[in-house]
Design a protein that fits this description.
Layout (H helix, E strand, L loop, with lengths): L14 H7 L21 E6 L3 H16 L6 E5 L7 H6 L7 E4 L7 H11 L2 E6 L6 H14 L2 E7 L1
Parallel strand pairs: 1-5, 2-3, 2-4, 4-5
Helix pairs in contact: 4-5
Length: 158
C-alpha cells in the first residue's frame, strides 16, 4: 500500500469575486502614488462593452468605491447615461449624499463641463461619458484636473 500524498491546490475565486476582492481602481485613490511632473494618473479611462446590464454591473463597484472616498469633496458624474437613475445609484449601494450629477446646458459640451468641474476643485473625481477621447481633449482634462487637484475618469461604453 502506498502512502497517501495530498497535493494542495489553491482555491479559485469566480471572476467577479476575485475582481471585487481587490481595490477596484487603486490608481485613482488620492495619494496612492506620488504625482510626477507630467501627472499621467490624473486621467483614466474605463472601456465597457457588452449588454447594458452587464456594463452597469461592472461599473457599480467602481462608482461605489469612488463615492466612499475619504476626501470630503464630491464624486461628480458628467452626462451619465439615462440608465444611471437615482434608483440605480441607490440599488448599487452608492453614497448618494456624496454624488453630484451634472448635465451640460445650452451650447456647453460634456467635455467643457467636465473640464470646468475638474478645474473648480470641488470634486475629488469627475466621471464623464465622453466616448473616445482624442489627444487634445485628454490634454484639456489633464490640465483641468491638475488645476483642481482632482482626477478624471472617462467611461467609454460600446
Amino acid at each position: 500500500m502506498q502512502p497517501f500524498t495530498h497535493t494542495h491546490t489553491p482555491a479559485q475565486l469566480p471572476l467577479f469575486e476575485a475582481f471585487l476582492a481587490q481595490p477596484v481602481l487603486p490608481g485613482l485613490k488620492s495619494g496612492a502614488t506620488p504625482r510626477k511632473s507630467n501627472q499621467p494618473e490624473l486621467f483614466s479611462e474605463l472601456a465597457l462593452r457588452g449588454a447594458p446590464g452587464h456594463c452597469q454591473s461592472l461599473l457599480a463597484p467602481v462608482l461605489r468605491e469612488l463615492s466612499e472616498e475619504d476626501d470630503s469633496r464630491w464624486l461628480t458624474l458628467i452626462a451619465p447615461p439615462g440608465s444611471l437613475t437615482q434608483a440605480w445609484l441607490r440599488d448599487a449601494g452608492l453614497n448618494r449624499e456624496r454624488i453630484l450629477i451634472l448635465q451640460p446646458g445650452g451650447k456647453q459640451t460634456p467635455l467643457q463641463l467636465a473640464c470646468e468641474a475638474l478645474r473648480l476643485g470641488h470634486s475629488h473625481t469627475v466621471v464623464s461619458w465622453l466616448g473616445a477621447v482624442n489627444g487634445s481633449a485628454r490634454q484639456q482634462l489633464l490640465r483641468a484636473a491638475a488645476l483642481g487637484n482632482a482626477q478624471s475618469l472617462n467611461i467609454r461604453l460600446g
